[in-house]
Amino acid sequence: MVVAVVVIAAVVGISVFTRVLPLSQPTPQVSEIRVGLVEPLSGTYAVFGNEARMAAELVIEEINSKGGIASLGGAKLKLFVEDSKSTADGARLAAEKLVNVDKVHVIIGAFISSHTLTMLDVTEPKKVVVMADALVDYLTARGFKYIVRLPPKASVHGATAVDFAVGVFQQNGMKIQRPVIVHFDGLFGEVTADGVYTRLRDLGIRPVDRIKYPTDITDMAPIIERIRQANPDVVFVVPYYADSVLFAKAVASLGLKVPLIVGAGGTGLADPDSIKASGEAAEYMINTYSYDPFLPTNYNKQLVQAFQNRYGKLPTEAAGIVFYTLWTLKEALEVSGKNYPDDPLSGDNLMKALMSLDITSGPAAETYPSGHIKLAPNGDNLYAQAVALQVQGGKPVLVYPFDKAQAKPVFPRP
Amino acid sequence: MKTYSALGAAIALAAVPFLVGLNEYYLFLVTLILLYTTIVVAWQLIGGYGGQLDLGAGAYHGLGAVVTGFLMVNYGVSGWVGLLVSGAAAAGVAFLIGYPSFRLGLKEVWYALSSLALVLILQKIFLLWTDVAGPLERYIPYAEFDPVFMRAGTKIFYYYITAALLASTFLIVSRIRRSKTGLYLISIRENEEAAEMLGVDVRRYKLQALMIYSFIAAVTGGIYASMVGFYHPTLFDSWISIQTATLAIVGGLGHLLGPPIVSIILLTVQEYLRITLGAVIIGLHQVIFGIILVVIIMFKPDGLGPLIDSLARRFPASVRR
């Protein structure tokens, strides 16, 4: 009999719960396009998620103020933000809500690759398109149908770091002899470091050590000592945020002397948040990014200015990816509205529209490093390109690709 | 009368999915609420009756998730078998920890701290033990609907499993409470030395309570892993430990109805706050939830159990325990 009371309480609780939270209404006739954004807004990776969210709010405001989606009668984008709490199950829960309650048409997220994978379990059966801002290669290689990814994948970041280092050595009449790879032990760390390793191997260079450390590391000293033991001429490092700060500080405080330290993967080391947190230790740190804030196109300059005016910092990885991802979505919606007026927002039609794009001008191209977006059948950009930034005088500057660079990389590290 | 109540309970539990309109997201939340409530009910054995401030729930819950997930991913073993194996594994760990703890007379804050440490220790072990877990998430194969393997695309499947688990846990706990074991446990809570003088085998009953509770906590973990479709050492979550003990204390230590009712209501409030405020001002929902708990404990230091009991007493006799 006690069970009855418990259950009644449950029923009352739950029905109150659902009454306060009205179940979603049926989809209206394209008066708005619902865009979900799943990002780590709290927890370990919050620094990335919050930057992505800032970018999404800024760009969606701009798209809407410029008249929304013309081919859909000026329909506006509506943003639904969810916090993944920096956990895989948090990302999944967020996706469940966006898909089942907010009934979004597309989800951008979830920055962390393993979190993005858990979302796909929810979005694929419901045919909701995911535009990933996460980089691990096999997100697009597992046969999922409703996923696209514009930024360069993790292995490209790894290869870019190597190409940059090789180029710097060449310019100084040297060759890489003793590279060391250091990375955190999560999915993204492994895959990006594999990218570094593979490119080195293809160039016939053997790393002298590959060092893995736990994501939640609190003391970098043993890692730094092991690097010192290996006596490297270049260190390739794949960190996230907090560990990148620890790494930079440990390199400075333990006096590790290496001619070149190059990060791969766009997280930590040379973005404004890392520079602020690492202080002087950030100086001369280099990392590869999926976005070039110094791209000298009119629209990019204007957008970076608007971002800085509003949020007081330079947009880098997380914001940059959202910039061109949202503008690409806008282009796809225009196409979908024109070609599939009966059902422009269905997952299938939206995917067809995305696949048909070949963008070489407009805001999406003007914010993309290579200036060219065209998707391969697996959903990756065929013209993906990463860039490298180095901290010089407390500010990030573009040092790679060499032909676009604002400054020569400082080499060797003083 | 008793059968009517049970029947009513069954119908009510069965009806919940339809009350939330079969919406997958709400079903997911309701299932989570019932899962965590199940741990709270089971925790009564060690905490409410046995009087031990156990903070190991996150460890047993995580162990259940990892063991069940590991068997499903690596050996294709049905989740049902996984639940039993993981329950046994958790009870085994509980024995290994509980036996020396109780033998050495570890109590109060020292017991609380050592049980909380278990969560962190197991998390580290499984982060390093890459053959079983490691830092990379492991994904359980997707199945649209495979009840034998215990995997389904729809949450209603997990909802009913969880509802059944909650009901059985409630029955087990209420039966133990009325049994000799229950009385022994309560005597231990009230005065351990006196109980021992009277010939109660203190260690044995504490250990029994701990093992049953850890078994059930592990089963909730296994269901969770199967539902979200992956496992990872972060599922060893000390938040679950703290949430469990807090809800049980706010519900009223040793009360049968208070903890589950309070837990369902407060977890619902917590989820509601998270949904509405979670992405608006980060962390605000946790602050508000914390304030609610503080206010309850300020005005009702014994928790809401006595209040709920006295309300229940106004109902016809049949509703009373």
Description:
- The complex is a heterodimer of chains A (414) and B (321).
- By secondary structure, chain A is of the alpha/beta class.
- Chain A has 2 domains: 32-152 and 295-366, 3-Layer(aba) Sandwich (Rossmann fold); 155-289 and 387-404, Rossmann fold (3-Layer(aba) Sandwich), CATH 3.40.50.2300.
- Chain A has 13 helices and 12 strands.
- Chain A has helices at 2-20, 46-65, 88-100, 113-123, 154-171, 187-202, 221-230, 242-253, 272-278, 298-311, 317-339, 347-356, 363-367, and strands spanning 32-39, 76-83, 106-109, 129-132, 147-149, 179-184, 209-213, 234-238, 260-263, 286-289, 387-392, 395-400.
- In chain A, the strands form 3 sheets. In chain A, strands 2-1-3-4-5 form a 5-stranded parallel β-sheet, with helices on both faces.
- In chain A, helix 8 links the parallel strand 8 and strand 9.
- In chain A, helix 2 (46-65) runs parallel beside helix 11, helix 3 packs parallel to helix 4 (113-123) and helix 8 crosses helix 9.
- The longest helix of chain A is centred in the C-terminal third of the chain and has 23 residues, at 317-339.
- The termini of chain A are far apart.
- Residues 22-28 of chain A have low confidence and may be disordered.
- Chain B has 13 helices and 4 strands.
- Chain B has helices at 2-19, 24-49, 57-75, 79-103, 108-128, 155-178, 180-190, 192-197, 202-228, 238-251, 258-277, 284-299, 305-314, and strands at 138-139, 145-146, 151-152, 230-231.
- Helix content of chain B is 74%, strand content 2%.
- A two-stranded antiparallel ribbon of chain B has the order 1-4. In chain B, strands 2-3 form a two-stranded antiparallel sheet.
- Chain B is mostly helical.
- Chain B has one domain.
- Classes of the chains: A alpha/beta (414), B mainly alpha (321).
- Chains A and B meet through helix 1, strand 2, helix 3 and helix 4 of A and helix 1, helix 2, helix 6 and helix 11 of B.
- Chain B: Pfam families: BPD_transp_2.
- Chain B: It comes from Caldiarchaeum subterraneum.
- Chain B: It is a multi-pass membrane protein.
- Chain B: Keywords: Cell membrane, Membrane, Transmembrane, Transmembrane helix.
- Chain B: It is found in: Cell membrane.
